[in-house]
Amino acid sequence: MLVFGLPFDRLRRFLPEKGPFSARKVPGRYITLMRTCIQLLLITLSVLMLPGETARAAYGPEASAAPFLQEARQLYQKHKWDASEDLYLKAAGSSRVEERILAYEGLVTLYRKVRLYKKAERAAGKLEEDRRFAARLVPEESRYYEIYEVRKGDAYSRLAGKRGISEEWLKAANGFRMLKVGERIRVPRVMDELVIRKKEKKLYWKRGDDLVKIYPVSIGRPGSETPEGVFKVVHRIQNPAWYWMKQVYPPGSPKNLLGTRWIGLDHKGYGIHGTRNPSSIGAAMSHGCIRMFNADVEELFPWIPLGARVEIRD
């Protein structure tokens, strides 16, 4: 085994010849632990030494499309139609629905201005689709909520954790405002859950009987089938490292198959994640996990809390 070029057996040469920590007295499991610690340290250092944008992509949340939107508007005002269109289209690829809505609004205005009516019609269709999705994300109907009076020590994360609900939904339902003792807020009473239908290769995001959104997925290939049953979410990791065959592949590595998000299940080793191979979506090509397009799993990730129910059916 190598530790970034260092043979595993040579690790013992760094230990003293005599004493309680001599090479002969230290058990092999501690040598293994030493190897793992060195691997993780070097991975962390390598990522932190990456230049600006790459480092942010490796550790931080996905970049906001706000700069694209701002520049696209400025270019539109200068009648630079092509450049403005390019930036609006980039913003339309955001995992944040509110940014996509602004991007499609800009595209509809631009296309109508330059009399590209077919393109304007298609952009308007996308705009309406995302507006409907946004309305399902944070519904206004009272049946989805109970009214709660904020107490001393309350925080969004604490309230969401106690109730097993989405912190993102809780914040959005109350306008992302700061909590104040004594004020009354809306607290979701409906749980988010996921249903994966293997034959369809689709993931259904549901709240009770309501369908929020459907995503295409990839499932386990023959011999590495995706397990069926009812599970719950136990891990949520942004930009995960991939541990495979005693090797560690850091975020951003071309060999890291997990993409940008990991939603781990209580079935060890299995979860829902992104991909480095978008062409695999819609096919049975994974090692048994559920793969999604990175933009899709980034959109889903903040809304699915720990403890959420996940059902995998044939």
CATH architecture of the largest domain: Beta Barrel
Query: DSSP strand (E) fraction?
Result: 15-25%
Got a strand count?
16
The CATH homologous superfamily of the largest domain is termed L,D-transpeptidase catalytic domain-like
Q: Order of strands side by side in the largest beta sheet?
A: 7-6-5-16-9-12-13-15
Note the main attributes of this structure.
alpha+beta; Serine Threonine Protein Phosphatase 5, Tetratricopeptide repeat; Membrane-bound Lytic Murein Transglycosylase D, Chain A; two-stranded antiparallel sheet; 16 strands; globular; disordered N terminus
Describe this structure in words.
The protein has 314 residues and is α+β, with helices and mostly antiparallel strands. The protein has four domains: 2-49, no CATH class; 66-137, Alpha Horseshoe (Serine Threonine Protein Phosphatase 5, Tetratricopeptide repeat); 142-188, Membrane-bound Lytic Murein Transglycosylase D, Chain A (Roll), CATH 3.10.350; 192-313, L,D-transpeptidase catalytic domain-like. Helices cover 36% and strands 22% of the residues. The chain has helices spanning 28-48, 52-59, 66-77, 81-91, 97-113, 117-137, 156-163, 167-173, 294-300; strands spanning 2-3, 6-7, 145-149, 184-188, 192-197, 202-207, 210-216, 219-220, 229-238, 242-244, 247-249, 261-265, 271-273, 284-286, 290-291, 309-313. It has an eight-stranded mixed beta sheet. Strands 1-2 form a two-stranded antiparallel sheet. The two termini are 39 Å apart.
